[in-house]
Amino acid sequence: MFGKIGGRSFLSSSLCNNTGFLQKNNNVDDKSRIVGFFNEQQPKSILTRDNERDPRFRRTETDFSNLYARDLLPAKNGEEYTMQFLLEVVDILTNYVRKTFDRSTKVLDFHHPHQLLEGMEGFNLELCDQPESLEQILVDCRDTLKYGVRTGHPRFFNQLSSGLDIIGLAGEWLTSTANTNMFTYEIAPVFVLMEQLTLKKMREIIGWPNGEGDGIFSPGGAISNMYSVMVARYKHYPEVKIKGMAAAPRLVLFTSEHVDQFTVNLFLLLHLSHLICIPLQCCSQSHYSIKKASAVLGFGTENLILLKTDERGRVIPADLEAKVIDAKQKGFMPVFVNATAGSTVYGAFDPINEIADICEKYNIWLHVDGAWGGGLLMSRKHRHKLNGVERANSVTWNPHKMMGVPLQCSAILVREKGLLQGCNSMCAGYLFQPDKQYDVTYDTGDKAIQCGRHVDIFKFWLMWKSKGTIGFEKHIDRCLELSEYLYHKIKNREGYEMVFQGEPQHTNVCFWYIPPSLRLLPDGEEKRQRLHKVAPKIKAMMMECGTTMVGYQPQGDKVNFFRMVVSNPAVTRSDIDFLIDEIERLGQDL
Amino acid sequence: MFGKIGGRSFLSSSLCNNTGFLQKNNNVDDKSRIVGFFNEQQPKSILTRDNERDPRFRRTETDFSNLYARDLLPAKNGEEYTMQFLLEVVDILTNYVRKTFDRSTKVLDFHHPHQLLEGMEGFNLELCDQPESLEQILVDCRDTLKYGVRTGHPRFFNQLSSGLDIIGLAGEWLTSTANTNMFTYEIAPVFVLMEQLTLKKMREIIGWPNGEGDGIFSPGGAISNMYSVMVARYKHYPEVKIKGMAAAPRLVLFTSEHVDQFTVNLFLLLHLSHLICIPLQCCSQSHYSIKKASAVLGFGTENLILLKTDERGRVIPADLEAKVIDAKQKGFMPVFVNATAGSTVYGAFDPINEIADICEKYNIWLHVDGAWGGGLLMSRKHRHKLNGVERANSVTWNPHKMMGVPLQCSAILVREKGLLQGCNSMCAGYLFQPDKQYDVTYDTGDKAIQCGRHVDIFKFWLMWKSKGTIGFEKHIDRCLELSEYLYHKIKNREGYEMVFQGEPQHTNVCFWYIPPSLRLLPDGEEKRQRLHKVAPKIKAMMMECGTTMVGYQPQGDKVNFFRMVVSNPAVTRSDIDFLIDEIERLGQDL
User: Fold this and answer.
1) Which InterPro entries does this entry report, sorted A to Z (chains A, B) (predicted)?
2) Which chain B residues are Cβ-neighbours of A292 within 8 angstroms?
3) What is the pLDDT of residues B529-579, one digit of tens each?
């Protein structure tokens, strides 16, 4: 075991702050990073402000140590304290926003679960019978951010969702303040209309005539994909709603064998004595969300049939047709095909038109999972990768991924109107006012599997207003250019090997870094075994140092490799350069 | 049709602003309400502040009319503009917060869908190719709030979720700023631990030994209830996960026939020519979320068996036992019973202990839906209403209802550890690092049906820290006292009739207001028909005037009645008095 200095592991200190590191990496970014690290160690009083110049952020004289939640509104005379308290919180948040964009700050200040659970310098997670003062609440807020991960940092490449859009953030603050839900026009008139208009716009962009169809924002891509399977089942076997799965023949679903989403969400535990990272979630999304849907909805996971992919991770249409025929010969009923538009690891786009031909031929519901790749529809340059999407019966599209909308924001769009309602409505028999003289499209509660539904639309609507369609297009084109830059930088660089050949379709760039000690080893099991451990080790050190974060995973018979993605508008070429330098710095002696 | 004046219907003006109304209701509240209404009509410049005294809210000199989203961070030199912009947004939000608690402001400024869609004085919902200036974005923010509903207003009684908790609000602002998700410890270390500790605390309060068990926060009560059905199915028929529903016998579920949740979420369309409100969602939650789960999960809605209730809306245990025996005799397999703790309309608590006896006898999963009533567990005075809850296999408990936590915050708690994981995990085969030396309880992604999951925990954790357990207890006791006050005020008052007799178990008080013109009518169909229209008409006028909002619905053979609930800490006796006065003012001439 390594020793600890002030709660930080010795390992971290030795890797991140020794003189050699400073000398080796003495560019401005790295120097300021180290300085930034030490600056962050300075204790800060609540009343000390970074920005004394801004008159609106003058230090307040309010003493929060004797104030409690009960002193805020609706307490009598609580207004002034409430405003002061909220402004203190905003001060914490705007400082965090500032630092998020500042490359001299760390991406994260990593601690192990047991460290956080034991309590860090006054940050105690335990809940008590008695209230804490507002001063402590402010400290808790500051510490929560301090020990978290800056997902908006220009060097956070770990997830498909990254970045911190300022307009989106403002939208979320407003949404929380409005504190309502999407169930009815009555309690969310503006948000319900915004949702309707935005979904229509998305359907127009998909290419459905006049933007006709239906849709709803759901709590994430997995639920959106689940909606698609439900609606497909309802379309083909509406009696299942009332009679259950027993009323249908054996239904089968099809999706790519390839990993799709959240493979990169690896839960790492840095086992310090061995310096090994252990990936827990080596599961794929085609395997994952469609497989989850198969289990949840009562199909059974063995009735999900996996489709072969080419070397780039794209479904092979001939394999789909062969498996459809095979299933029918066995007496099963194919009802649903998922085509992935932007797989999680490779960023692969399945050939939608060819898949649509087969679906039409055999009367199968075609769903396009564009959770990750749907954003490319906004780009005139890149939308051809989804050619044929207008032939889909339903589409999942997560603006919270490629379009930089804050989490969560995921849409399920359905070409045929009325199916969502038919599938999920429970109320037909209860309508007893015969004179229905209103437009029920304003109601959404009956389309959803939820009752109350979080307002996910406003931030997206506001971002669209503020950027225009062309703003999203620019963002997407730029992210893809950065990926091309990375691809060209490393494809022939010593110590790198690409996982698949050719320019990436999406922003995903998949590669192995091969440390000098492995470069001369002959190909074979020993090299594989050792290479498999490289990415986890480098990732562990990145997190300990807090300098950057990037995902890795294995895929099929390929050992662990890095998967780089760009969706954050704050990223520049220098950040890509930094990542490569950092991988080499941390990996050179492995 | 009535005429329109400046986009507001004549009906509204005549009811809300005529001299007679002012003379009839010339108490301070009403006067200031009217004055407040006119004040709200004054156009406001972005740069005009209500509170010039606060130095932190001095008018800024920034001209946002030539600034765009692209000028904000990460733009070069974007920091200053970003801070100014966010402070402008905060200014809008804090003004909204102030007004929310101000009884002289309206609860809502009602407009019809077509009015909002046509565009209100510069508020245009349409999305364009080109960006809007930040000045317009700020106007959009202000207008979004202006045309919405103040769910935190002390006179908003329309939903089970009401109020605007300042600490919870701060928590939500921080959550949006952190912009991460709950999938892994890696990207949400602090939030993942907070969730774990909070769920354990909730299980302790339920009464499970040492707080052992499992749980997760989900996107609302309907999804939490769906989890309970899924886990019950997995416990009894784990093979369904792989083989589908075909692998199990015909499974049946049981729940109350009584309405439970969201009945009050009536989608109203005010048909002006007839002044009739039409309830669209006359559906119940027992019927609703459990029925939705039956459909979604492949059981089929006809396999949900409804249980008879007593006059207070509580399930009759003998009916459950009879129906279980009957189902078994037909060869069906009873797997799941839902006991409701706090039904939506009556606030009824099913007798959990007696239901648990039957579930144990027949080996059936017992779920307690405490979405609405679970909060009473925090009160030593009222928790007896959930006696036996510790015998449940799973419990739904929505802190976003009775505990005043901002939307959304719903927990599903499961007594047996490992079932959530077993039920939803898709990954077992993919773990290929043999040396798993970490505690997988920190991972949550594999327990959920979602992939990414919104951070719902922080606001709740922060509120608990700031109030302590005793703070929640006081809040709950106070809300129940207010309901008793209302009950005693109207139970013998002329023109009122209680829907059921006796003190309410929860804060729900259900009553008819009978206008003078109906009081002398003999009981019979004509009176029923006319009474049925009273609550919708009064509600329509309330919304037009914007003075207050309260829910109504029919129940079984009972015609439309008001259902009053209190969950907002801002409510006082004077607000209860106001509601009654308002009902009488608006209803006296019907």
Assistant:
1) PyrdxlP-dep_de-COase, PyrdxlP-dep_Trfase, PyrdxlP-dep_Trfase_major, Pyridoxal-P_BS
2) 424, 426, 449
3) 999 999 999 999 999 999 999 999 998 899 999 999 999 999 999 999 999
Fold adopted by B213-421: Aspartate Aminotransferase; domain 2 (3.40.640)
Chain B contact set for A183 (CB, 8 A): 262, 265, 281
Residue B160's pLDDT band (cuts 50, 70, 90):
very high
Q: In this complex, do B73 and A289 lie within 8 Å of one another by their Cβ atoms?
A: no
* Predicted pLDDT at A285: 43
Alpha-carbon distance B576 to nearest alpha carbon in chain A (angstroms)? 16
Task: Give me Rg for the CA atoms of chain A.
Answer: 26
Tell me which of A98, A174, A550 to substitute to probe the interface with B (most B C-beta atoms closer than 10 Å).
Answer: A174
pLDDT band for position A86 (50/70/90)?
very high
For residue A52, what pLDDT is reported?
47
Nearest Cα residue in chain A from B152: A179
CA B236-A251-A281 angle, to 5 degrees, is 60
- The CA distance from B386 to B376, in Å, is 8
| C-alpha closest to that of A315 among A282, A289, A352, A284 | A352
Task: Render the burial of B55-69: b for 16+ CB within 10 Å, e for the rest.
Answer: ebbeebebebeebbb
- Provide, for chain B, the percentages of residues in helix, strand and coil under a 3-state DSSP scheme, each rounded to the nearest 5: 45, 15, 40
Residues A218-276: pLDDT tens digits?
A: 999 999 999 999 999 999 999 999 999 999 999 999 999 985 433 333 333 222 223 33
| Alpha-carbon gap, residue B261 to B287, rounded angstroms | 9
Question: Can you tell me whether residue B410 is helix, strand or coil?
Answer: strand
Query: Chain centroid to CA B65: how far?
Result: 38
Question: Among candidates B234, B235, B254, which has minimal Cα distance to B244?
Answer: B234
Interchain contact, A98 vs B90, CB within 8 Å? no
Give the pair of three-digit tokens for residue A128.
């008590």
Alpha helices in B25-133 (DSSP H): 28-41, 79-100, 113-118
CA quadruple A201, A205, A210, A214: dihedral sign:
negative
The order of strands in the sheet holding A251-256 is A214-218, A410-414, A394-397, A365-370, A333-340, A251-256, A304-307
* CB–CB contact B453 A303 (8 Å): no
**Model confidence band, residue A507 (pLDDT cutoffs 50, 70, 90):** very high
Mutation target for A interface from B59, B100, B146, B176: give the one with most A CBs within 10 A. B176
The span from the CA of A25 to the CA of A27, in Å, is 6
Q: Three-class SS of residue B507?
A: coil
Q: Is A272 on the interface with B (CB under 8 A)?
A: no
Residue extents of the structural domains in chain B: 213-421
Chain B residue with CA closest to A223: the answer is B450
- Asked if residue B495 lies in contact with residue B534, where contact means CB atoms within 8 angstroms, the answer is no
| Separation between Cα atoms, residue B315 and residue B282, nearest integer Å | 20
**Mutate which of B172, B174, B291 to disrupt the A interface (most A C-beta within 10 Å)?**
B174
- Angle, vertex CA A381, rays to CA A378 and CA A387, nearest 5: 75
| Segment B402-453, tens digit of pLDDT | 999 999 999 999 999 999 999 998 864 333 333 322 355 676 878 999 988 9
Q: Which of B110, B69, B505, B450 is nearest to B272 (CA)?
A: B110
Least confident of A505-519, B55-69, B191-205, B457-471: B55-69
> CATH number for the A180-425+438-458 domain, one of 1.20.1600.10, 3.40.640.10, 3.40.50.1910, 3.90.226.10?
3.40.640.10
Cβ contacts (< 8 Å) between A116 and chain B: which residues? 189-190, 193
**What CATH architecture applies to the domain A470-587?**
Alpha-Beta Complex (3.90)
To the nearest whole Å, the CA of A349 is away from the closest chain B CA by 20
